[in-house]
Amino acid sequence: MPKAFVRFAYHMSKLINGAFPFVFNDVEFHMLKEKALYYPDKKSLLLADLHFGKAAHFRKFGIPIPEQPHRDDLKVLQRLILETSVKEVLILGDLFHSSLNAQWGDIQNFFESFPDIQFHLIKGNHDILPALSYQSPNLKVHVEPLIYGPLLLSHQPLDKVPEGFLNVCGHIHPGYALRSAGRQRLRLPCFYRKENLLILPAFGKFTGLYVVTCTSEDEIYVVTENKVMAINLMQ
To answer: Which domain range does residue 124 map to?
Structure first.
């Protein structure tokens, strides 16, 4: 594992249940089983690809998808905010799936239920709502990558990353296929790291998985119900 991105063995802040901690350029982060990244020094959460409004978008075209997966996602995010006492939540694109529908009001109400928290949206390819829709009092919208400590935040992976920065992004919905002796495959969401790039798993339940192709130089951290686990790609 590269020296700039190592498991922290001591001087760790309080570890969240099931999290996998690491350090990049002497800054501590925790990969969470809830498919988010916790940044203790800044008291912030980073997550990507929520795709709220997707169920309503499908229903508009006659496909009967229930709203419950989105409600569950909001409950998870609410619990994370309360458990970590964060001051900022940074959404790395695809907050909302498509054109405006009734669920956008639920998202605005959610933001406004945490008036002391600053929410950020780094816009993704699905974030196509009119500019006026994003005018919640505690939501900042960014159309360009955002420097955030040693992180360079974007929706899609960047082609060029300045030395000393880790590009944290989403968009890919990375997954990893665990193979059993019986040739069965269990596909799990994962955090995928390659050189100076860290791709977050999709936070939203109602999203697909893209099984990433890895080399022995890459790093995979699969997300299970109980914890985040490192996968040994050297085997």
So the answer is: 5-231
CATH number of the domain bearing residue 170: 3.60.21
3-state secondary structure of 222: strand
Q: How far apart are CA 191 and CA 219, in angstroms?
A: 8
Side-chain half-sphere exposure of 160, counting CA atoms within 13 A: 1
Q: Which residues pair with 104 in a beta bridge?
A: none
Annotate 159-192 with DSSP letters as a single string: S---TT-EEEE-SS-EEEEEE-TTS-EEEEEEEE
**Distance between CA atoms of 191 and 36, rounded to whole angstroms?**
9
Helix axes 68-84 and 103-112, enclosed angle (nearest 10): 10
* Three-class secondary structure of residue 10 per DSSP: coil
For residues 4 and 163, is the Cβ–Cβ distance under 8 A? no
The residue that leads in pLDDT, 57 or 70, is: 70
Q: Report pLDDT digits (tens) over 131-182.
A: 777 888 899 999 999 999 999 999 999 999 999 999 999 999 999 998 766 6
Q: What does the alpha-carbon distance between residue 95 and residue 76 come to, in Å, rounded to a whole number? A: 15
In the chain, what is the straight-line distance between the N-terminal and C-terminal CA atoms, in Å?
Answer: 14
Is residue 140 classed as helix, strand or coil in its secondary structure?
Answer: strand
Question: Number of structural domains, the chain?
Answer: 1
Q: How far is it, in rounded angstroms, from Cα 37 to Cα 181?
A: 32
Bridge-based pairing of strands 197-199 and 166-169 is: parallel
Q: Is 85 helix (H, G, I), strand (E, B) or coil?
A: coil
For residue 12, give the DSSP letter. Answer: P
CB 210 within 8 A of CB 192: no
What's the pTM value of the predicted model, to 2 decimals? Answer: 0.87
